[in-house]
Protein backbone atom coordinates (compact mmCIF):
# COMPACT_ATOMS: atom_id res chain seq x y z
CA UNK A 1 0.00 0.00 0.00
CA UNK A 2 1.13 3.55 -0.63
CA UNK A 3 1.74 6.13 2.05
CA UNK A 4 -1.68 7.74 1.64
CA UNK A 5 -3.42 4.46 2.45
CA UNK A 6 -1.27 3.88 5.54
CA UNK A 7 -1.64 7.39 6.93
CA UNK A 8 -4.82 8.89 5.48
CA UNK A 9 -6.12 12.24 6.64
CA UNK A 10 -9.65 10.86 6.88
CA UNK A 11 -11.06 7.52 7.96
CA UNK A 12 -14.54 6.97 6.56
CA UNK A 13 -16.12 4.63 9.09
CA UNK A 14 -18.93 2.28 8.13
CA UNK A 15 -20.53 -0.18 10.55
CA UNK A 16 -21.90 -3.20 8.71
CA UNK A 17 -24.47 -5.67 9.96
CA UNK A 18 -26.59 -7.53 7.41
CA UNK A 19 -26.43 -4.62 5.00
CA UNK A 20 -26.62 -6.56 1.74
CA UNK A 21 -29.47 -4.45 0.36
CA UNK A 22 -27.62 -1.13 0.25
CA UNK A 23 -23.94 -1.47 1.21
CA UNK A 24 -22.64 -1.76 -2.36
CA UNK A 25 -23.97 1.69 -3.28
CA UNK A 26 -22.81 3.12 0.05
CA UNK A 27 -19.25 1.89 -0.57
CA UNK A 28 -19.28 3.15 -4.16
CA UNK A 29 -20.38 6.60 -2.98
CA UNK A 30 -17.25 6.74 -0.81
CA UNK A 31 -14.91 5.52 -3.55
CA UNK A 32 -16.37 8.19 -5.87
CA UNK A 33 -15.27 11.05 -3.59
CA UNK A 34 -13.45 13.97 -5.20
CA UNK A 35 -11.21 14.08 -2.11
CA UNK A 36 -9.00 11.00 -2.16
CA UNK A 37 -6.81 11.03 0.97
CA UNK A 38 -8.94 8.61 2.94
CA UNK A 39 -9.36 5.02 4.01
CA UNK A 40 -12.73 3.31 4.15
CA UNK A 41 -12.84 1.33 7.37
CA UNK A 42 -15.68 -1.20 7.43
CA UNK A 43 -16.32 -2.99 10.71
CA UNK A 44 -18.36 -6.14 10.14
CA UNK A 45 -20.54 -6.81 13.17
CA UNK A 46 -21.22 -10.50 12.61
CA UNK A 47 -23.21 -10.24 9.38
CA UNK A 48 -24.99 -13.43 8.33
CA UNK A 49 -26.25 -12.35 4.90
CA UNK A 50 -24.29 -11.49 1.72
CA UNK A 51 -22.69 -8.35 3.18
CA UNK A 52 -19.16 -9.81 3.17
CA UNK A 53 -19.49 -11.19 -0.36
CA UNK A 54 -20.44 -7.74 -1.59
CA UNK A 55 -17.55 -6.05 0.24
CA UNK A 56 -15.06 -8.57 -1.18
CA UNK A 57 -16.12 -7.63 -4.72
CA UNK A 58 -14.27 -4.32 -4.27
CA UNK A 59 -10.51 -4.32 -4.83
CA UNK A 60 -9.76 -0.68 -3.99
CA UNK A 61 -6.77 -0.68 -1.57
CA UNK A 62 -8.31 2.14 0.46
CA UNK A 63 -10.90 -0.30 1.83
CA UNK A 64 -9.97 -1.93 5.12
CA UNK A 65 -12.29 -4.60 6.53
CA UNK A 66 -12.15 -5.74 10.15
CA UNK A 67 -14.43 -8.16 11.96
CA UNK A 68 -16.01 -8.22 15.39
CA UNK A 69 -16.06 -11.54 17.19
CA UNK A 70 -19.77 -12.08 16.58
CA UNK A 71 -22.58 -9.54 16.74
CA UNK A 72 -21.53 -6.98 19.36
CA UNK A 73 -23.97 -4.18 18.63
CA UNK A 74 -23.60 -0.66 17.28
CA UNK A 75 -21.99 1.01 20.31
CA UNK A 76 -19.22 -1.60 20.48
CA UNK A 77 -18.76 -1.41 16.69
CA UNK A 78 -18.49 2.37 16.66
CA UNK A 79 -15.88 2.28 19.42
CA UNK A 80 -14.01 -0.36 17.44
CA UNK A 81 -14.04 2.10 14.57
CA UNK A 82 -12.41 4.79 16.73
CA UNK A 83 -9.80 2.30 17.88
CA UNK A 84 -8.98 1.05 14.37
CA UNK A 85 -9.09 4.38 12.53
CA UNK A 86 -5.84 5.76 11.14
CA UNK A 87 -7.12 9.16 10.06
CA UNK A 88 -6.99 12.45 11.94
CA UNK A 89 -10.70 12.76 11.20
CA UNK A 90 -13.43 10.13 11.26
CA UNK A 91 -16.24 10.60 8.75
CA UNK A 92 -19.31 8.55 9.65
CA UNK A 93 -21.46 6.94 6.98
CA UNK A 94 -24.14 4.35 7.70
CA UNK A 95 -24.09 1.38 5.34
CA UNK A 96 -27.49 2.26 3.86
CA UNK A 97 -26.76 5.94 3.19
CA UNK A 98 -24.95 7.62 0.30
CA UNK A 99 -22.25 10.30 0.43
CA UNK A 100 -22.43 13.11 -2.11
CA UNK A 101 -19.30 13.27 -4.34
CA UNK A 102 -17.82 16.38 -2.70
CA UNK A 103 -18.77 15.53 0.87
CA UNK A 104 -15.24 14.89 2.18
CA UNK A 105 -13.76 17.75 0.14
CA UNK A 106 -16.21 20.27 1.63
CA UNK A 107 -15.67 19.14 5.21
CA UNK A 108 -11.88 19.00 4.95
CA UNK A 109 -11.83 22.43 3.33
CA UNK A 110 -13.76 23.82 6.31
CA UNK A 111 -11.71 22.00 8.95
CA UNK A 112 -8.38 22.97 7.38
CA UNK A 113 -9.46 26.60 7.56
CA UNK A 114 -10.98 26.21 11.05
CA UNK A 115 -8.79 23.67 12.89
CA UNK A 116 -10.32 24.48 16.28
CA UNK A 117 -13.57 22.73 15.30
CA UNK A 118 -14.01 19.12 16.43
CA UNK A 119 -17.25 18.29 14.60
CA UNK A 120 -18.41 19.29 11.14
CA UNK A 121 -21.76 18.00 9.91
CA UNK A 122 -24.18 19.10 7.24
CA UNK A 123 -27.53 18.71 5.52
CA UNK A 124 -29.13 15.67 3.88
CA UNK A 125 -31.73 14.69 1.36
CA UNK A 126 -34.13 11.90 2.24
CA UNK A 127 -34.43 8.83 0.03
CA UNK A 128 -36.72 5.83 0.26
CA UNK A 129 -35.78 2.17 0.05
CA UNK A 130 -35.63 2.38 -3.75
CA UNK A 131 -33.32 5.41 -3.67
CA UNK A 132 -35.97 7.92 -4.74
CA UNK A 133 -35.71 11.34 -3.11
CA UNK A 134 -38.66 11.98 -0.82
CA UNK A 135 -37.66 15.20 0.90
CA UNK A 136 -34.97 17.13 2.72
CA UNK A 137 -33.48 16.81 6.19
CA UNK A 138 -32.22 20.20 7.29
CA UNK A 139 -30.40 21.12 10.48
CA UNK A 140 -29.15 24.48 11.69
CA UNK A 141 -25.89 25.61 10.09
CA UNK A 142 -23.14 27.85 11.44
CA UNK A 143 -21.50 27.62 14.84
CA UNK A 144 -23.02 30.27 17.13
CA UNK A 145 -26.04 28.35 18.40
CA UNK A 146 -25.37 24.69 17.67
CA UNK A 147 -23.68 23.81 20.97
CA UNK A 148 -26.34 25.36 23.23
CA UNK A 149 -29.10 24.04 20.97
CA UNK A 150 -27.92 20.50 21.84
CA UNK A 151 -29.53 21.13 25.23
CA UNK A 152 -32.90 20.93 23.45
CA UNK A 153 -32.38 18.65 20.44
CA UNK A 154 -29.84 16.68 18.47
CA UNK A 155 -28.66 19.26 15.94
CA UNK A 156 -26.64 16.74 13.91
CA UNK A 157 -27.36 14.11 11.26
CA UNK A 158 -25.02 11.32 12.30
CA UNK A 159 -24.23 10.10 8.77
CA UNK A 160 -22.94 13.58 7.84
CA UNK A 161 -20.48 13.93 10.71
CA UNK A 162 -16.74 14.36 10.40
CA UNK A 163 -15.17 14.32 13.85
CA UNK A 164 -11.65 14.75 15.14
CA UNK A 165 -10.55 11.32 16.31
CA UNK A 166 -8.62 12.89 19.20
CA UNK A 167 -11.81 14.61 20.43
CA UNK A 168 -13.69 11.31 20.33
CA UNK A 169 -10.97 9.64 22.40
CA UNK A 170 -10.81 12.59 24.80
CA UNK A 171 -14.57 12.31 25.37
CA UNK A 172 -14.29 8.58 26.11
CA UNK A 173 -15.86 7.37 22.87
CA UNK A 174 -19.42 6.15 22.53
CA UNK A 175 -21.30 5.14 25.66
CA UNK A 176 -24.06 2.57 25.86
CA UNK A 177 -26.85 5.07 25.24
CA UNK A 178 -28.28 3.18 22.28
CA UNK A 179 -29.95 4.27 20.08
CA UNK A 180 -28.89 7.83 20.99
CA UNK A 181 -25.17 7.18 21.54
CA UNK A 182 -24.26 9.52 18.66
CA UNK A 183 -26.19 12.41 20.24
CA UNK A 184 -24.60 11.71 23.62
CA UNK A 185 -21.08 11.80 22.14
CA UNK A 186 -21.71 14.95 20.10
CA UNK A 187 -23.07 16.70 23.20
CA UNK A 188 -20.03 15.74 25.29
CA UNK A 189 -17.59 16.85 22.60
CA UNK A 190 -19.45 20.16 22.22
CA UNK A 191 -18.76 21.00 25.88
CA UNK A 192 -15.05 21.37 25.10
CA UNK A 193 -14.77 22.15 21.38
CA UNK A 194 -16.53 24.27 18.75
CA UNK A 195 -18.89 22.28 16.51
CA UNK A 196 -20.76 23.19 13.34
CA UNK A 197 -22.90 22.15 10.39
CA UNK A 198 -22.28 23.21 6.81
CA UNK A 199 -25.21 24.58 4.85
CA UNK A 200 -24.60 21.94 2.20
CA UNK A 201 -26.11 18.53 1.42
CA UNK A 202 -23.52 15.89 2.32
CA UNK A 203 -25.50 12.64 2.27
CA UNK A 204 -28.60 10.94 1.00
CA UNK A 205 -30.22 9.60 4.16
CA UNK A 206 -32.30 6.48 3.67
CA UNK A 207 -35.64 6.10 5.43
CA UNK A 208 -37.05 2.62 5.95
CA UNK A 209 -40.64 1.51 6.29
CA UNK A 210 -39.96 -0.50 9.43
CA UNK A 211 -42.38 0.32 12.20
CA UNK A 212 -40.69 1.17 15.49
CA UNK A 213 -41.79 -1.27 18.16
CA UNK A 214 -42.99 -0.13 21.57
CA UNK A 215 -39.88 -1.71 23.08
CA UNK A 216 -37.64 0.33 20.77
CA UNK A 217 -39.59 3.50 21.56
CA UNK A 218 -39.07 2.92 25.27
CA UNK A 219 -35.35 2.40 24.67
CA UNK A 220 -35.12 5.72 22.83
CA UNK A 221 -36.91 7.53 25.66
CA UNK A 222 -34.66 5.98 28.32
CA UNK A 223 -31.54 7.06 26.44
CA UNK A 224 -32.83 10.60 25.93
CA UNK A 225 -33.79 10.92 29.60
CA UNK A 226 -30.26 9.89 30.59
CA UNK A 227 -28.77 12.51 28.29
CA UNK A 228 -31.07 15.22 29.66
CA UNK A 229 -30.12 14.21 33.20
CA UNK A 230 -26.45 14.63 32.22
CA UNK A 231 -27.21 18.04 30.72
CA UNK A 232 -28.82 19.13 34.00
CA UNK A 233 -25.90 17.75 36.00
CA UNK A 234 -23.37 19.62 33.84
CA UNK A 235 -25.31 22.84 34.42
CA UNK A 236 -25.41 22.24 38.17
CA UNK A 237 -29.18 21.73 38.28
CA UNK A 238 -30.14 19.54 41.27
CA UNK A 239 -31.54 16.19 40.19
CA UNK A 240 -35.29 16.40 39.75
CA UNK A 241 -37.00 13.55 37.89
CA UNK A 242 -40.08 15.64 37.16
CA UNK A 243 -38.02 18.48 35.72
CA UNK A 244 -36.11 16.00 33.54
CA UNK A 245 -39.37 14.57 32.20
CA UNK A 246 -40.80 18.02 31.48
CA UNK A 247 -37.59 18.84 29.62
CA UNK A 248 -37.99 15.61 27.66
CA UNK A 249 -41.57 16.50 26.73
CA UNK A 250 -40.24 19.74 25.24
CA UNK A 251 -37.39 17.84 23.56
CA UNK A 252 -39.99 15.49 22.02
CA UNK A 253 -42.30 18.34 20.89
CA UNK A 254 -45.04 17.17 23.25
CA UNK A 255 -46.07 20.72 24.03
CA UNK A 256 -49.64 19.76 24.88
CA UNK A 257 -48.44 17.39 27.61
CA UNK A 258 -47.55 20.24 29.98
CA UNK A 259 -48.63 23.74 30.88
CA UNK A 260 -46.55 26.74 29.89
CA UNK A 261 -45.65 27.26 33.55
CA UNK A 262 -44.18 23.76 33.74
CA UNK A 263 -41.99 24.36 30.70
CA UNK A 264 -41.02 27.71 32.20
CA UNK A 265 -39.63 25.87 35.23
CA UNK A 266 -37.21 24.04 32.94
CA UNK A 267 -36.17 27.13 30.99
CA UNK A 268 -35.54 29.17 34.14
CA UNK A 269 -33.58 26.31 35.74
CA UNK A 270 -31.41 26.09 32.61
CA UNK A 271 -30.80 29.84 32.62
CA UNK A 272 -29.87 29.85 36.30
CA UNK A 273 -27.66 26.79 35.89
CA UNK A 274 -25.75 28.24 32.96
CA UNK A 275 -25.26 31.54 34.80
CA UNK A 276 -23.25 29.58 37.39
CA UNK A 277 -21.69 26.85 35.25
CA UNK A 278 -20.80 29.12 32.33
CA UNK A 279 -21.12 26.28 29.83
CA UNK A 280 -22.45 28.60 27.12
CA UNK A 281 -22.07 32.29 26.34
CA UNK A 282 -24.81 33.92 28.40
CA UNK A 283 -25.93 36.28 25.63
CA UNK A 284 -26.42 33.42 23.16
CA UNK A 285 -27.96 30.93 25.59
CA UNK A 286 -30.35 33.41 27.19
CA UNK A 287 -31.58 34.60 23.80
CA UNK A 288 -32.21 30.99 22.73
CA UNK A 289 -34.22 30.42 25.92
CA UNK A 290 -36.23 33.59 25.35
CA UNK A 291 -36.99 32.67 21.72
CA UNK A 292 -38.13 29.19 22.73
CA UNK A 293 -40.32 30.63 25.47
CA UNK A 294 -41.90 33.15 23.10
CA UNK A 295 -42.55 30.45 20.48
CA UNK A 296 -44.06 28.15 23.09
CA UNK A 297 -46.46 30.83 24.35
CA UNK A 298 -47.52 31.58 20.79
CA UNK A 299 -48.07 27.89 20.11
CA UNK A 300 -50.03 27.05 23.27
CA UNK A 301 -52.24 30.17 23.34
CA UNK A 302 -53.00 29.79 27.04
CA UNK A 303 -54.72 32.46 29.09
CA UNK A 304 -52.64 34.97 31.02
CA UNK A 305 -50.05 35.24 28.26
CA UNK A 306 -48.94 38.78 29.16
CA UNK A 307 -47.99 38.01 32.80
CA UNK A 308 -46.26 34.83 31.61
CA UNK A 309 -44.39 36.71 28.90
CA UNK A 310 -43.31 39.82 30.80
CA UNK A 311 -43.09 38.19 34.24
CA UNK A 312 -40.73 35.35 33.43
CA UNK A 313 -37.02 35.46 34.23
CA UNK A 314 -36.42 34.79 30.54
CA UNK A 315 -37.78 38.16 29.45
CA UNK A 316 -35.17 40.77 28.53
CA UNK A 317 -35.96 43.76 26.36
CA UNK A 318 -32.75 43.33 24.36
CA UNK A 319 -34.11 40.10 22.84
CA UNK A 320 -37.63 41.31 22.01
CA UNK A 321 -38.52 42.50 18.52
CA UNK A 322 -41.36 44.92 17.83
CA UNK A 323 -43.08 42.23 15.78
CA UNK A 324 -42.96 39.73 18.66
CA UNK A 325 -44.32 42.31 21.06
CA UNK A 326 -47.24 43.14 18.77
CA UNK A 327 -48.08 39.48 18.31
CA UNK A 328 -48.12 38.58 21.98
CA UNK A 329 -50.22 41.66 22.89
CA UNK A 330 -52.61 40.88 20.03
CA UNK A 331 -52.86 37.27 21.24
CA UNK A 332 -53.82 38.42 24.75
CA UNK A 333 -56.27 41.01 23.41
CA UNK A 334 -58.20 38.59 21.19
CA UNK A 335 -58.29 35.95 23.90
CA UNK A 336 -59.91 38.46 26.26
CA UNK A 337 -62.51 39.37 23.62
CA UNK A 338 -63.35 35.71 23.00
CA UNK A 339 -63.64 35.06 26.72
CA UNK A 340 -66.09 37.95 27.17
CA UNK A 341 -68.23 36.69 24.33
From TrEMBL:
- Which keywords does UniProt give here? Transferase
Instruction: Offer an example of a GO molecular function term for this protein.
Output: transferase activity
List, for all copies, the residue spans of the domain called Glycosyltransferase 2-like: 11-134
Write down the CDD domains for this protein, in alphabetical order: Glyco_tranf_GTA_type
Q: Which domain of life is it from?
A: Bacteria
Q: One Pfam match, by short name?
A: Glycos_transf_2
Look up the signal peptide feature and give its range: none
- Protein name per Swiss-Prot or TrEMBL: Glycosyl transferase family 2
Which organism is this entry from? Chitinophaga arvensicola
Amino acid sequence: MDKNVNTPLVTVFMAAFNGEAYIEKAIQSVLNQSFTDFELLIVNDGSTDRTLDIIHQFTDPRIRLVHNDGNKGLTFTRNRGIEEAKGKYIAVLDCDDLATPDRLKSQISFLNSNPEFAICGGQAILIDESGKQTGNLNVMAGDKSISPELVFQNTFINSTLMIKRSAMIEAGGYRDYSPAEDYDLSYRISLHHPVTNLNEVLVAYRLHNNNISKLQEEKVVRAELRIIENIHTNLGIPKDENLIRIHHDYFSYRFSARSSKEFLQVFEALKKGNATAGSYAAQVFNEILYKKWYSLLRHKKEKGVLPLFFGSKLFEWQYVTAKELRKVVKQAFFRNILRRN
